[in-house]
C-alpha cells in the first residue's frame, strides 16, 4: 500500500483560502468515503480535523472543510489564521482493515 | 474523554525487540465502537499506520511490516501493546498510540497519545 500523495507545501496570507490535495488509488481513496484529515503542530500529536470526507468533529472551526472527487480528496482552509500554520495529513481506509496516510503538507501563513 | 499514554524504552539497540504499551484511561478498551492503533513518525517525515487491534484480539497490520510486528491487547489492564522485532536505525521514530473510532460511519483516529520517541542505536 503506497502513501497517498500530497503537495509538500502550500502557503497563503491571513484571511485567504488554501486547498490541500490528497491523491490515492482506485482501491483506497477512490473506493471508500473514509477519508480523514489531521493537523499536527511541531512536537505535538496529530489532531483529527475532518472525517468521512466532509464531517467536522466537535470543536473544529467551520473554516475547515473537506471534499472528494474520484481518487483525490481535498482539505480547504478558508479565512486562514496564524494558528493554522502546521503540517496536515490525509488518511484513507484501504480495505481489509488497512489504513494509509498521505505524505503530508506544510501550511505556511505568510 | 478517554486518554491514551504510551510507555516504553526510549533507546533500543539494533536487532533488539521494541516493546511499547499504551494505557487507556477514562473508559473501557472493551468497546465495539473502537479499534486501537499504533502509528509512527520518523524524524522529519510523515505518519505511518502500523496496525490496529480490536478488544477481542483480532489484529491487522500494514502488509510490509507484518513479519516484524505484533500488537496485543490486555483488557484486564485496559492496555494494548506493540512488539517490533529486529529493530534497525530506520525504525527510529516517535511512536503514537491512537483510538480508531469505527462507529457511526466515522472511521478515523479521533484520540491520540502524546507519542513516545524511540531511538535505535548501539
Feature tags:
heterodimer; A: 110 residues; mainly beta; 6-stranded mixed beta sheet; 3-stranded antiparallel beta sheet; 44% strand; globular; B: 122 residues; 7-stranded mixed beta sheet; 4-stranded antiparallel beta sheet
Describe the structure.
The complex is a heterodimer of chains A (110) and B (122). Chain A is built from no helices and 9 strands. Chain A starts with 8 loop residues before the first strand and ends with a strand. Chain A is mainly beta and 110 residues long. In chain A, a hairpin with a 6-residue loop joins strand 3 (35-40) and strand 4. In chain A, the strands form 2 sheets. In chain A, strands 1, 3, 4, 7, 8 and 9 form a 6-stranded mixed β-sheet that branches. In chain A, strands 2-6-5 form a 3-stranded antiparallel β-sheet, with no helix packed on it. With 122 residues, chain B is mainly beta. Chain B contains no helices and 11 strands. Chain B has strands spanning 3-7, 11-12, 18-25, 34-41, 48-53, 59-61, 69-74, 79-84, 93-101, 108-112, 116-120. In chain B, the strands form 2 sheets. In chain B, strands 2, 4, 5, 6, 9, 10 and 11 form a 7-stranded mixed β-sheet that branches. A 4-stranded antiparallel β-sheet of chain B has the order 1-3-8-7, with no helix packed on it. The N and C termini of chain B lie far apart (39 Å). The interface between A and B is medium-sized, with 26 and 25 residues.
Amino acid at each position: 500500500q503506497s502513501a497517498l500523495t500530497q503537495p509538500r507545501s502550500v502557503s497563503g496570507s491571513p484571511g485567504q483560502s488554501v486547498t490541500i490535495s490528497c491523491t490515492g488509488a482506485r482501491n483506497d481513496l477512490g473506493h471508500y468515503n473514509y477519508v480523514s484529515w489531521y493537523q499536527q503542530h511541531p512536537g505535538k500529536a496529530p489532531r483529527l480535523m475532518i472525517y468521512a470526507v466532509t464531517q467536522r468533529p466537535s470543536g473544529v472551526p467551520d473554516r475547515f472543510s473537506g471534499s472528494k472527487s474520484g481518487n483525490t480528496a481535498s482539505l480547504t482552509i478558508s479565512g486562514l489564521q496564524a494558528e493554522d500554520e502546521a503540517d496536515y495529513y490525509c488518511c484513507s481506509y484501504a480495505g481489509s482493515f488497512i489504513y494509509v496516510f498521505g505524505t503530508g503538507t506544510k501550511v505556511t501563513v505568510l | 474523554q478517554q486518554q491514551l499514554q504510551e510507555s516504553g524504552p526510549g533507546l533500543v539497540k539494533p536487532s533488539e525487540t521494541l516493546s511499547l504499551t499504551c494505557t487507556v484511561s477514562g473508559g473501557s478498551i472493551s468497546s465495539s465502537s473502537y479499534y486501537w492503533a499504533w502509528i509512527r513518525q520518523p524524524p522529519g517525515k510523515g505518519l505511518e499506520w502500523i496496525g490496529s487491534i480490536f478488544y477481542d484480539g483480532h489484529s491487522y497490520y500494514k502488509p510490509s511490516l507484518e513479519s516484524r510486528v505484533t500488537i496485543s491487547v490486555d483488557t484486564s489492564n485496559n492496555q494494548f501493546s506493540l512488539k517490533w522485532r529486529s529493530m534497525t536505525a530506520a525504525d527510529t521514530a516517535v511512536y503514537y498510540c491512537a483510538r480508531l473510532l469505527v462507529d457511526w460511519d466515522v472511521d478515523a483516529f479521533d484520540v491520540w497519545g502524546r507519542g513516545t520517541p524511540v531511538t535505535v542505536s548501539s
